[in-house]
Write a structure and sequence with these properties.
Oligomer: single chain
Radius of gyration: 19 Å
CATH class of the largest domain: Alpha Beta
Helix content: 25-40%
Strand order of the largest sheet: 6-7-8-9-11-10
Structural class: alpha/beta
Largest sheet: 6 strands, mixed
CATH topology of the largest domain: inorganic pyrophosphatase (n-terminal core)
CATH superfamily of the largest domain: inorganic pyrophosphatase (n-terminal core)
């Protein structure tokens, strides 16, 4: 199966090879990306709950410490349980979910396992090269959860209230509450269907938006204080180094949505969050507003992702990385058409 082209793929029409690969397997490893977000967790967890209905033995690959405090709610709510390394190694299919590159699969002995076990790759990242034996990649889909909902339906599995809640969390967070440019007719329809299936929308929204720890709240203060805006007002960025993150009682897994702070400034077209969750490694979250694609900018630094939301990592100090990236970002913004 070849990768489905992102501009013509229908997120509601699951290729037969996807369902055939799942039906042919007995023991299935469900793997997301390093530092899984709500979309990755929801995609993994919903299949983990659904596949036993087909007589399958799904195994959730979730290394200890990889889930943020806030997203532990989803793990506990759905009763998700991580598999052992022995269970992983005994699988006859790996389903990679919401993971744009093979090296980002969140499992030990990744390359050796991928060389031995067939991979089904389901994703919505436009830069996914199709590293699986089977690849269903829909770059214009709002989320991988939207695609997994279609897979569960195509397999004939029941969408229980718990599955609906997980998938709603994935779609809701990747669209920022159906507010970003990746929100489309199908994502709204999926949200509607999940609500009818019993998704606990109120609790998802409370947990995702109104349940910060004191440390997470303090970290927001750091991001606000460190936010800067470029001379022409269209580039904004903020930083949080290792000492600031750990000083707030947070870890690398807690860094992601804080990029919304510089992004929220009126007139900003490109926002960047530089964070040092792991000492000596600077992660960059890029966001584009009003149709601006930041994917090319992220790719300049070895990153990838979506057109409106991308990321990259560089080894170095905060000072050396910002000195390298900000001039390129300023040049990128200067070349944008003005509204």
């Amino acid at each position: 199966m070849t990768t489905v082209h992102e501009q013509v793929a229908d997120p509601t029409r699951v290729p037969s090879e996807v369902c055939d690969a799942i039906r042919a397997a007995e023991s299935i490893a469900l793997v997301g990306h390093v530092t899984p977000d709500a979309d990755a967790l929801a995609s993994m967890g919903s299949l983990w709950l659904a596949l036993p209905e087909l007589g399958k033995r799904p195994h959730l690959v979730l290394p200890e410490g990889s889930v943020s405090r806030q997203l532990q709610y989803l793990v506990e709510y759905a009763g998700l349980q991580a598999c052992t390394q022995a269970e992983l190694e005994a699988c006859d299919l790996i389903v990679g979910l919401d993971t744009a590159k093979q090296r980002r699969l969140n499992m030990d002995d990744r390359d050796a396992l991928v060389a031995r076990i067939s991979v089904l790759n389901i994703d919505h990242h436009a830069t996914n090269p199709g590293y699986g034996k089977w690849n269903w990649i829909v770059g214009h889909s709002s989320s991988t959860s939207e695609l997994v909902y279609a897979v569960i339906k195509a397999l004939g599995c029941q969408v229980t209230p718990t599955i609906a809640t997980l998938l709603y969390a994935g779609v809701h967070t990747d669209t920022q509450g159906f507010a970003l440019s990746n929100t489309g007719a199908n994502s709204l329809l999926v949200g509607h269907d999940l609500a009818l299936a019993g998704a606990n929308i109120v609790e998802v929204c409370e947990r995702m938006h109104r349940s910060q720890s004191r440390g997470e709240f303090d970290l927001l203060g750091v991001i606000y204080r460190n936010t800067h805006v470029g001379a022409d007002g269209r580039l904004a960025w903020s930083t949080a180094d290792y000492g600031e993150i750990t000083g707030a009682g947070c870890v690398a897994a807690d860094i992601d949505d804080q990029v919304e702070i510089p992004r929220s400034i009126e007139g900003v077209a490109v926002a960047i969050l530089f964070s040092e969750g792991d000492r000596g490694t600077i992660r960059m979250n890029f966001r584009g507003e009003r149709g601006v694609s930041v994917l090319e900018l992220a790719q300049q630094f070895g990153g990838g992702g979506h057109h409106a939301a991308a990321g990259a990592k560089i080894e170095g100090t905060m000072e050396s990385v910002t000195a390298q990236v900000l001039p390129a970002a300023e040049q990128f913004v200067a070349a944008l058409d003005r509204d």
